[in-house]
Amino acid sequence: MRLILFVIITGCFILTLPVVQHNNTRHVMSLSSGKAYAYYGVGRRIARRTARRTARRVVRRHSYYRAPAAVVYGAPAAAVAIGATFASLPSGCTSLVINGLTYYHCGGTYYQAAYDGPNIVYVVVDPPR
Amino acid sequence: MNISLKAGRLFCVFFVFYLLLPSISYSENSDIDPMADKILRQMSEYLKGLDHFIIRAETAYETVLDTGQKLTYLNQVSVYLQRPNRLYVHRTGMIRDQEIFYNGKTLTIFGRKKRLYAIAQVPPTLDSMFDYAISQLHLTAPGSDLFYTDVYGGLMGDVESGMYIGKNKVNGIMCHHLAYRGSEVDWQLWVEDGPCPIPRKYVITTKWVTGAPEYSMTILDFDSKTPIPGPIFIFKPPKDAKRVAFLTPSQIERLKKHIKEQRK
Hints:
The structure holds 2 protein chains of 2 kinds. Helix content of chain A is 45%, strand content 25%. In chain A, strand 3 (93-98) and strand 4 (101-106) form a beta hairpin. Chain A has a 5-stranded antiparallel β-sheet, with no helix packed on it. Chain A has helices at 2-41, 53-66, 69-72, and strands at residues 44-46, 85-86, 93-98, 101-106, 109-116, 119-125. The N and C termini of chain A lie far apart (76 Å). Chain B has a single domain, classed as outer membrane lipoprotein receptor (LolB), chain A. Strand 1 of chain A pairs antiparallel with strand 2 (52-65) of chain B, so a sheet runs across the interface.
């Protein structure tokens, strides 16, 4: 009797295990690909990586254009100006290569990837010809 | 007679005070513990004397969200530095898996997750390259403060006080704990106690930012003996990798303007 109970309980446990694991993974995945990355670019105060005086002015200047990031560095709004820069692309983009350059086409707007320091950003560009 | 004696005494008192004055103000300006100064200099001299080194480190980078919640992003970092002008950095973490190559002429950054790389023409020495990367490319190598030729000179540029805290272990290695205070950031350094005064831990506190986020680097492995293979500094783009640009200064200006417009 005890053995049967043990088998049933263990069986149940084993059956639930993959589900739990799957949920965990999904949670982590969404955090790394979506939320966390957005956090990384949006509405945050960051630590400096240098104590050198020479770097201070520079970091301050950059934090100036990074600080109001909630507006520009977030997800793109409906109408976007050429040169606007975003931390991520909106959903439903297709990537295409024209004259060796890679563009992302999302709902009528064209983007190009670029490095802003160590971060990939997406800059709105003129439609390629 | 009596009056001139009093005047003489008064003069003596003022004279002594006058003599003391510069030394008092001097000690206020450079409020640095001689022991802390000595160890920092020793470390700087030791690092300056190394032809090359390989570092394995763990970095922690704090971010304070608008909600006030603090997140710590951890990265594992390998640094291969060859003087005067070679550098390879590989950092991995939740968000990035990134390589940086510097060969004395160009700097390449390659994101292994998104398979995108960018190449920039940069100055021909490590020191000038770091300055350029920070100011023009918006790129700070992890803990680059410790990779300049003159670490002491660079770190002491903005220091108000320096303390020697005592001895403590970092990952089982006995270290001297130093704590320096600057106008905008405070920083702490743990320097190995022994014949090789190498940095073992480095913490920078951005103190006037709400939540006082910190950046820290813990050096787990420091190797200045194993020679570095030359090809490691040369980037060969994988077939599936695509080249993109660094944001140009004009794009950054554009971005600033755009933010200003959105603010109105």
